[in-house]
């Protein structure tokens, strides 16, 4: 006896945003079997303890919104906005539900609706920053230069002493305090510059500078280039590169992210490099998924796949071209906090640990919760400060148990967040939070 499947026909929905959500993600939401394997991996479910703060809960809400059963603005916006986007649930999922795609689809629809309705000044400001500042490297560098002046003239110390910024925004106050001391703008690497390898040239790489890294943490970029040169790489700082588009995608601005991706693909193709290297887990994850972003544009898809194949994290290349010529003995225990997007999206787990274990004198101790998000989440810690700090405070308990004197990260947001965490436990004088590149540069004797 044959079984005939009954086809489910959804009612015709007039709301264009519901139709858009259905088109973008409904099929993927049906892949979720609601098993709950994602629950222990989700930091917001652990901290908030409610189903709407879990991956399967959010997927179910997206599904119902796509069916027109719940209101996008009233019922979906907040649960989606409270997701960190760490994508640890994807690693835990036994049936490979593409949670990241479902999340970004929901954000895209929500953002479109908010912009059309001019929902709030916060939404408009966020859109303004992402369209008028981040896509322009010169503007990001200007912000960095002004920040250096702000620090050099002592204004930063005055603001911290008077807690002026904290009174306006606790989140901004804590992050301002966590910002590392910038080095002089004259030390910036110029776009289009080619740095020769030290000794034998083993390979040619093109360096992706990133927005925040190039704007506010360019010392780490300079050290990245010097480490690559020490490892035998000729490094080109690609001209005409732009923001990777990660923040745009995370805020539902997919069209803007696509344009940035196309610009970067074109710029890096012209470099003729063997690999395209970056030093920020969040940026790297976005670059790693350019082929998914441009999958619906045949003229760009093949080019994006070639780009993804060449895109590498700094830790991968330093292991590949290494070993590094270490010159300095390290003192104390080192621990490592994974960048969620480096670990969960790019699948890079061992290379950073391998490099840290090679440092002479260093005692490496695995952080108990290294695979759990620190709750930086791009700009999550600015938009949802209290929720972010609750997760961070738990993380810092594990840091204290490790007895580490150095916390290593591989993403600018994580680095700032761990700096905030060290401040919150009152250990700023005894525990350093550093990017992997800073630790390796110091151990190799690269000058500050």
Q: Bin the strand percentage.
A: 5-15%
The total of beta strands comes to 9
Shape-level CATH architecture of the largest domain: 3-Layer(aba) Sandwich
Distance between the termini: 77 Å
Average pLDDT score:
92
Largest sheet: 5 strands, mixed
The spatial strand order of the largest sheet comes to 1-3-2-4-5
Domain 4Fe-4S ferredoxin-type: 22-53, 73-103
EC number: 1.1.99.14
Function: Component of a complex that catalyzes the oxidation of glycolate to glyoxylate.
InterPro entries: 4Fe4S_Fe-S-bd, 4Fe4S_Fe_S_CS, Cys_rich_dom, Glc_ox_4Fe-4S, Helical_ferredxn
Which key phrases capture this entry?
Rossmann fold; five-stranded mixed β-sheet; 7% strand; 448 residues; 25 helices; four-stranded parallel β-sheet; alpha/beta
Molecular structure report:
With about 450 residues, this protein is of the alpha/beta class. It has 4 domains: about 100 residues, Orthogonal Bundle (Fumarate Reductase Iron-sulfur Protein, Chain B, domain 2); about 40 residues, no CATH class; about 140 residues, 3-Layer(aba) Sandwich (Rossmann fold), CATH 3.40.50; about 120 residues, AF0625-like (Rossmann fold, 3-Layer(aba) Sandwich), CATH 3.40.50.10700. Helices cover about 55% and strands about 5% of the residues. The N terminus is likely disordered. The chain contains 25 helices and 9 strands. Strands 1-3-2-4-5 form a 5-stranded mixed beta sheet. The protein has a 4-stranded parallel beta sheet with strand order 7-6-8-9, sandwiched between helices. This is Glycolate oxidase iron-sulfur subunit. Its cofactor is [4Fe-4S] cluster. Component of a complex that catalyzes the oxidation of glycolate to glyoxylate.
């Amino acid at each position: 006896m044959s079984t005939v499947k009954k086809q489910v026909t959804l009612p015709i929905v007039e709301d264009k945003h519901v139709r858009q959500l259905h088109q973008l993600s409904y099929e993927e939401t049906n892949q979720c079997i609601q098993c709950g394997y994602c629950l222990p991996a989700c930091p917001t479910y652990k901290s908030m303890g409610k189903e709407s703060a879990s991956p399967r809960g959010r997927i179910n809400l997206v599904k119902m919104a796509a069916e027109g059963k719940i209101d996008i603005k009233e019922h979906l916006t907040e649960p989606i906005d409270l997701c960190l986007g760490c994508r640890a649930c994807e690693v835990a999922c036994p049936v490979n539900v593409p949670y990241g795609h479902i999340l970004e689809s929901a954000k895209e629809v929500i953002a479109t609706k908010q912009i059309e309705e001019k929902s709030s000044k916060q939404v408009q400001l966020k859109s303004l920053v992402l369209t008028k500042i981040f896509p322009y490297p010169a503007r990001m560098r200007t912000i960095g230069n002004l920040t250096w002046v702000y620090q050099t003239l002592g204004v930063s110390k005055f603001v911290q002493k008077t807690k002026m910024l904290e009174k306006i925004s606790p989140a901004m106050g804590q992050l301002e305090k966590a910002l590392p001391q910038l080095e002089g703008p004259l030390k910036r690497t110029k776009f289009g510059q080619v740095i020769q390898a030290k000794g034998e040239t083993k390979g040619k790489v093109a360096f992706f500078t990133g927005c925040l890294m190039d704007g506010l943490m360019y010392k780490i970029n300079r050290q990245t280039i010097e480490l690559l040169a020490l490892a035998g790489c000729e490094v080109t700082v690609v001209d005409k590169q732009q923001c990777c588009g990660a923040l745009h995608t995370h805020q539902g601005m997919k069209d803007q992210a696509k344009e940035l991706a196309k610009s970067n693909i074109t710029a890096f193709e012209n470099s003729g490099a063997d690999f395209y290297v970056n030093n920020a887990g969040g940026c790297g994850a976005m670059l790693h998924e350019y082929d998914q972003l441009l999958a619906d544009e045949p003229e760009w898809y093949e080019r994006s796949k070639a780009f993804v194949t060449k895109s590498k994290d700094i830790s991968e290349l330093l292991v590949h071209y290494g070993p590094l010529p270490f010159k300095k003995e390290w003192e104390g225990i080192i621990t490592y906090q994974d960048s969620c997007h480096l670990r969960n999206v790019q699948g890079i787990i061992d290379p950073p640990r391998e490099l840290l274990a090679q440092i002479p004198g260093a005692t490496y101790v695995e952080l108990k919760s290294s695979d759990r998000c620190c709750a930086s989440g791009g700009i999550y810690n600015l938009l949802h400060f209290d929720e972010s700090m609750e997760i961070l405070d738990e993380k810092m308990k594990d840091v204290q148990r490790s007895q580490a004197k150095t916390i290593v990260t591989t993403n600018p947001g994580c680095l700032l967040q761990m700096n905030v965490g060290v401040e919150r436990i009152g250990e700023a004088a005894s525990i350093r939070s550093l990017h992997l590149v800073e630790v390796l540069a110091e151990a190799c004797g690269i000058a500050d």
